[in-house]
Amino acid sequence: MGHVHGPEVPPASASGRYVKRLAAAFCVAGAFMIFEFTVAFLTGSLALLSDAAHMLTDVFGVGMALIAILVAQRTVPTATRTFGMYRSEVFAALFNALLLFGVAGYVLVEAIRRFVDPPEVAALPVMLAAGAGIVANLVSFFLLRSGAKESLNLKGAYLEVLADLIASVGVLVSGVITLLTGWRYADPLMGVGIAVFVLPRAFSLARRSLRILFQHAPERIDVDGLAGRLDKLAGVIDVHDLHVWTLTSGMEVASAHLTVDADADQADVLERARHLLSVEYHIQHTTLQVEPPESAENCGTPSW
Predict the structure, then answer these.
(1) Residues 168 and 133: beta-carbon distance below 8 Å
(2) Strands across the sheet with 285-291, in order?
(3) What is the assigned CATH class of domain 217-296?
């Protein structure tokens, strides 16, 4: 039998390259969150309050993302934590999604109450606060945009900032309508619109996080097709116990047993299988076991 292992888990995930940008986004979001909450309570604006609450999830979410990256960078694999703490980023992304669900639910309940007796809202301060929120979110948006393509953790923070940017625009629009027409329903209606906008994005983030935590195969990889490609390698007569999963963003792992002809060159089979997984499927960490036919028959099936 033989084994081949891909490169060791890298010292930092893709999101680790964006720590400074993440820290800057955290500071910007935190400052404007305090400002928006203050103006929301002074003016009685539900739309601005919902935007400030969503900004709170930005602050908490970006903060969690930053902590998760720092933990992942400073925790090396050990004998008991063989993959380190890299999955902390995924837990942070899932928690961000749950926060979004909570904020959206609160806004919907509060909006229903206000439809019965819509309060008067001071439109001009709301508009000024919304304009400041737009500027803050644009800064955070550009800080996180490139990193969101590589990391689920940063993707969560980026989606929150993007949603809040759109929400701030909505608050500005509701403020203009209130100022020009005096229509009191504009503010709670916009609050509902913001909540409805947030929900599908929270669902998508939660779904992606849970796929990783449940160790599902990456969506981009056809596992049956991968098994077929391995099975067609010269000397391979069977592929079994094939597993493909994601450790965290940018870190995908695979393991498999390859049954080979008795006269096959095991080292050559291992090298070609490793090359296939690395180059064509972009899976850098692999554990492959090569078995002659007589050993494969005794490979057994796990009791679980």
Answers:
(1) yes
(2) 2-5, 285-291, 251-260, 236-248
(3) alpha beta
How many beta carbons lie within 10 A of that of residue 221, not counting itself? 17
Instruction: For residue 14, give both structure tokens.
Output: 């893709």
Rounded Cα gap, residues 252 and 215, in angstroms: 10
Q: Is there a shared CATH topology between the 14-213 domain and the 217-296 domain? A: no
Question: What are 48-96's pLDDT values in tens digits?
Answer: 887 887 788 778 777 877 777 777 666 677 778 777 777 887 888 888 8
pTM of the model: 0.75
Tell me what pLDDT residue 237 has.
Answer: 93
CATH no. for 14-213: 1.20.1510.10
- Domain ranges for the chain, please list them: 14-213, 217-296
Res. 263: pLDDT tops 80: yes
Residue located via tokens 């709670």 = 188
